[in-house]
Amino acid sequence: MNKQIVYRSLAVAIVALSFTRCKIPAAVKPREEKRTVPASYSGTSESDTSNMATLQWRNYFSDPYLVALIDTALKNNQELNITVQELEIARNEIRARKGEYLPFLGLRGGAGVDKVARYTNIGAMEANTQIKPGKEMPEPLPDYMFSAYASWEIDIWRKLRNAKKAASLRYIASMEGRNFTITNLIAEIADNYYELLALDNQLEIVKRNVEIQSNVLRIVKLQKEAAKVTELAVRRFQAQVLNTQSLQYGIQQRIVETENEINFLLGRFPQHVDRDVAGFERLTPAAVRAGLPVQLLDNRPDIRRAEQELAAAKLDVKVAKARFYPSLGLNAQIGYQAFDPAYLLKTPESLLYSIAGDLAAPIVNRNGIKAAYYSANARQMQAVYNYERTVLNAYIEVANQVSNMKNLDSAYSIKSNQVETLAQSVTISNDLFRSARADYMEVLMTQRDALEARFDLIETKMKQMNATVNIYRALGGGWK
């Protein structure tokens, strides 16, 4: 009769577990991510596979001062070093997940004493128990034990292995995140370096203009003494000189801030940044070699990171799904236990051992597991959208920079002609003014236009160099 009850109970348990194995709540099936990109960028050839992103940054940037700054930043930048520690955290997460599907082994030891009340079942039995003839059970009763124990959850549904694989994918994603940080760090330093060179050149132009305008002011004062011009002309020229002089202080402040931004990226306190000021005007933008859009999938670290995070999110869904299935665990223990150290190693009397297996599955109140499953599905959809957004953003960034470099090249050519024309106009206006054939307002306006044009030319040159940096970053260059 008892055997029939046991068999029936086991049958009910197996049926319940089987029902639980099959009864999994339906979730929205995430769609597959779109991996297609246009065949080419606007204005480029579909057959041109040459890509500047394949160049190492040391070969892409030729200025030795800039190379030295980047070298220092790659060693000392705090954000990059924080990312390296995130890699270590991700690596330890792999170790933790791997340990979950391996057997747990350990040693256990203990000692204690126990006094049971005499007028209880156990106390009465101990009172009537003799170890040897004429030798009763000691009271209070000591207890000594040492053993080895093991536990192991058998990974039937690959729940633990998938969790470990997801952690490995996130570690790879962290590595790609570090690469993306390197790409951005190199680009930020190069951008600030070219801006610093541009500011230096603008400051030099201001100083030259102050000198030129001061000379003109002296001439105007002499002409005023000769009654050729009025005091108004003197005041207007003097105001122009003062206005130009004031510009240099704003530029000097920007130079200080840009230097300190570079120092911050290099992980050091403010100091002078070595640079080649004279070489700025000799800089020429690199020829655009954007390659094919499909190459972004391999070159851009942020796309590669999004891809790994998507793969990890898919495995998370499998892990969450496996929690609805029965889990099988094994537990074992072997050792010695006795109330007297003299008997502790006596075999087989003091020997203890056990082995047990357990099968468990959730049947009632599975809300927590359901919530985790639905959340895993939602995170997978997030990862799909994030991957597609990252690819789209990368394509648009490159397309913008390809167009930007073409337009800046045309703008620089026109600005160069404008500067040359206005430089000639300044010379002509000064000559005409000395011979009293031009009004002083014409001279002032011409000088102002020439100064603004020179500023704009340097600004355009800086934008050109920044564009070469930005397209290199947009294509995924710098981290290799």
TrEMBL record:
<keyword id="KW-0449">Lipoprotein</keyword>
<keyword id="KW-1134">Transmembrane beta strand</keyword>
<feature type="coiled-coil region">
    <location>
        <begin position="70"/>
        <end position="97"/>
    </location>
</feature>
<comment type="similarity">
    <text>Belongs to the outer membrane factor (OMF) (TC 1.B.17) family.</text>
</comment>
<dbReference type="InterPro" id="IPR010131">
    <property type="entry name" value="MdtP/NodT-like"/>
</dbReference>
<keyword id="KW-0472">Membrane</keyword>
<keyword id="KW-0564">Palmitate</keyword>
<keyword id="KW-0175">Coiled coil</keyword>
<dbReference type="Pfam" id="PF02321">
    <property type="entry name" value="OEP"/>
</dbReference>
<dbReference type="InterPro" id="IPR003423">
    <property type="entry name" value="OMP_efflux"/>
</dbReference>
<keyword id="KW-0812">Transmembrane</keyword>
<protein>
    <submittedName>
        <fullName>TolC family protein</fullName>
    </submittedName>
</protein>
